[in-house]
Specification:
eight-stranded antiparallel sheet; disordered C terminus; alpha/beta; 29 strands; seven-stranded mixed sheet; 737 residues
């Protein structure tokens, strides 16, 4: 225990309404901040000869929110302060009082740090004083954070001179540093208000018992190669008389190329075979044991395979998730849930630990890996790719595989983790970052129990491997659905945004955005090679995108038919945080010289006549002077598919345009094609258009928001690469197509 922690704990007292939390007196907190270089108001002997107004404050375990109980009195003088002190002590009976100088009015800010399990310490910064709750303008960052983050936060909020901003940035750094010194002991630390870089008020609350947190060093080090490419598989729970999950998995493995025998067997207490698959009471020396028996039998089955199995995957439900809604036990029983699901989880984990095996689930669908012939789906795509996904939902994982495949996403690996009682999202992500067969990672999360380890892994991935996260349960009603699904509690949306801002991970809101981002990153922003990925590993040194220099104007160019669609496209880019700046004057002049701009915009968005009557190379003609005249990171191309039917006879000209954009004359820049109103085409033409885009390596979406979100994910990863010094996608020749 550090000297600071000992000092704070010795001075702290339990809160009257919560003995699990200890409040540290304000003078002790301010003294610690001052020792670390933060300015505080003059107090004590420093007030000798001071003639300005004074502030009287009381402190004690029942006076955490001083202004609400009258524990702060302003505008006093040396002549009136003692009388005010006597009155305050008689009224409040505090642990103590102290007097400070009263600072002149100024911009009031708040810097606070709160422990937000499972992620650890989160820093909040924004308008302070009485505005902190009235305005939803507070920015969040996870700790530890880089010094550049503090500067970026101050730059965004602080009025006045650069020196003033530097002072506030320094204050943020000091408060963050003090919070990290307290770390697992800290519940809350707040300076509100902070005026001109001076901590006018300070509050600190400790946990009575230090919390625990999982980090990369805490968890077991496992090589998951054989999970995704097992040499042998055993399935427990298949039936000789009826269709069960176990039977379906055996069928799925057969369809994926597994031959019954030594590499694929069933586990059954009495049968010799399940169909043509040999059955045994237990399996020997198996890489992967799939368990689909009732929850109360799972632990015993694992114990029977102690020392015989490397990875066990429990499909069965009825564990902790079945106790998510104590008010509806009947509904849990209808779903096969156990009234003692948490206890069954404890027993299951103990059995896995005793047996020397790693455990997936329970309550999950398993693993998909075309190269390793791992699957939980019938008819799963067999094409091998480089996109890997970690999902806490088995059902959604099937959607990701099937719908992602139609968008051109090619998977290396996908793993479902369900309740994550053993193998967790953070541990799996930490391994995937170094997997040479993975260049893009997707996450679907509901309850990341190892939140701190997950954040550390995301920080380690920044600039090495692009990561996209879809988080379920961020809405109020969604949180209820999550609780009934995995036994999880949802986390505030802004905390997840802070995770993205701190680590470089892109947070998306819909499955369509998730798949669009994976497809775009797969095509344009694959990860750096394994050697570069391992060049550094300290999460504290990872710069967040929020701290990076703002992108240059017109980093994203929007081009397509004019009218309202261009306005909506710009709005979509703005929602995604993309810069759609004006094109340079010489570029606009060149576009007008080509005949564009009569009644339409050429400033960005670039409005051009695209449709059945236009030439197939119209996009190339318009983009030529744009790409030659200024730096552009991404081009969002949109086309109105219904126009080819309302004003033409079909998709022939559109198919020519797609071929030109793809293989015939590809643009020398990242691009996304938005097929607006695609459903206006006949189904056979829809298939032809989609297949043409896939054949020509063009990433497509049907909505402007999905496209903008995907482009934003690429730009975020690119900024992390540039800060870390990794080769960008452009410098690697736009590899990954």
């Amino acid at each position: 225990m550090s000297t600071l922690v000992k000092q704070f704990r010795a001075a702290a007292s339990p809160l009257p309404d919560d003995p699990n939390r200890l409040v540290v007196p304000e003078p002790v907190v301010k003294a610690a901040l001052a020792e670390r270089g933060l300015s505080i108001p003059r107090t004590g002997s420093a007030l000798d000869g001071y003639t300005g107004p004074l502030v009287l404050k009381a402190f004690g375990p029942s006076l955490v929110h001083k202004s609400e109980v009258g524990a702060v009195q302003l505008g006093l003088t040396a002549l009136t302060v003692n009388e005010a002190r006597n009155a305050m002590e008689a009224r409040l009976r505090p642990a103590g009082t102290f007097v400070e100088e009263q600072l002149p009015a100024g911009q009031e800010l708040v810097v606070g740090v709160v422990d937000r399990p499972p992620f650890g310490l989160v820093l909040a910064f924004g308008p302070g004083g009485s505005f902190v709750e009235a305005l939803d303008a507070v920015e969040l960052r996870l700790l530890p954070m880089a010094a550049a983050d503090a500067a970026a936060l101050a730059h965004g909020f602080v009025r006045g001179s650069d020196a003033h901003r530097h002072g506030v940035a320094h204050a943020i750094e000091v408060i963050a540093s003090l919070a990290m010194e307290l770390n697992f002991h800290l519940a809350e630390l707040e300076c509100n208000p902070l005026i001109g870089g001076v901590a006018v008020d300070a509050r600190c609350i400790l946990h009575a018992e230090p919390r625990t947190g999982s980090t990369r060093a805490d968890g077991p080090s496992t090589d998951f190669t054989r999970l995704f490419a097992p040499r042998s598989i055993a399935v427990a729970g298949a039936s000789t008389s009826r269709e069960t999950f176990g039977n379906r998995f055996l069928d799925a493995y057969r369809s994926f190329g597994w031959e019954p025998g030594s590499s694929l067997v069933a586990v059954h207490p009495s049968a010799d075979s399940i169909g043509d698959v040999p059955a045994f009471p237990r399996a020997d020396d198996t890489d992967y044991l799939l368990v689909a028996v009732p929850a109360e039998r799972c632990a015993a089955l694992l114990r029977a395979h102690a020392g015989r199995v490397r990875f066990a995957h429990v499909v069965s439900g009825g564990f902790g998730e079945s106790e998510a809604d104590d008010e509806d036990a009947d509904a849990d029983a209808d779903k096969g849930g156990s009234v003692d699901g948490r206890h069954l989880e404890v027993e299951l984990l103990a059995a896995a630990r005793e047996g020397g095996m790693r455990l997936l689930g329970p309550n999950c669908m398993g693993v998909y890996s075309p190269a390793g012939r791992q699957t939980f789906l019938q008819g799963a795509p067999v094409e091998q790719g480089t996109v890997s996904v970690i999902s806490q939902s088995g059902g959604l994982a099937g959607d990701i595989v099937k719908a992602g495949s139609t968008m051109g996403v090619r998977f290396s690996k996908l793993v479902t983790l369900g309740n994550s009682v053993d193998v967790t999202p953070g541990e799996m992500l930490d391994w995937m970052i170094d997997d040479p067969e993975t260049t893009v990672v997707g996450l679907y999360l509901e309850d990341p129990k190892d939140g701190r380890r997950l954040v550390d892994a995301l920080a380690r991935a920044a600039g090495r491997v692009p990561v996209v996260a879809l988080v379920g349960g961020l809405s109020r009603q969604g949180a209820t659905a999550v609780a009934s699904h995995t036994g999880a509690l949802a986390v505030d949306r802004r905390v997840w945004q802070a995770i993205g801002d701190t680590t470089g991970c892109s947070i998306v809101e819909t499955l369509e955005q998730f798949l669009a981002a994976l497809a775009y990153l797969q095509r344009w922003c694959p990860a750096a090679g394994p050697a570069h990925r391992s060049s550094a590993s300290s999460s504290a040194s990872v710069p967040s995108p929020a701290a990076l220099d703002p992108p240059a104007p017109a980093t994203t160019v929007v081009i397509g038919p004019g009218g309202g669609a261009s306005v909506l496209a710009t709005d979509a880019c703005d929602r995604a945080g993309l810069s759609v700046g004006r094109l340079l004057p010489e570029v606009r002049k060149a576009l007008r010289g080509l005949g564009y701009g009569a009644g339409t915009s050429v400033s960005n968005p670039v409005e051009i006549p695209v449709g059945p009557a236009a030439q197939a190379d119209t996009y190339h003609r318009a983009l030529g002077p744009v790409l030659a005249g200024q730096a552009v990171d991404d081009v969002l191309i949109h086309v109105n598919v219904q126009a080819y039917y309302s004003y033409g006879s079909g998709p022939a000209r559109l198919l020519e345009t797609i071929e030109l954009l793809g293989t015939t004359a590809p643009l020398p820049v990242r691009c996304m094609l938005v097929l607006r109103n695609l459903d206006a085409a006949p189904p056979v033409d829809v298939d032809a258009i989609i297949n043409a885009c896939r054949a020509n390596g063009i990433v497509t979406t049907r909505t402007l928001d999905d496209a903008s979100t995907a482009i934003a994910a690429a730009q975020r990863f690119q900024r992390c690469q540039r800060r870390r010094g990794a080769p960008s996608g452009a410098e690697r020749g736009k590899a990954g197509g």
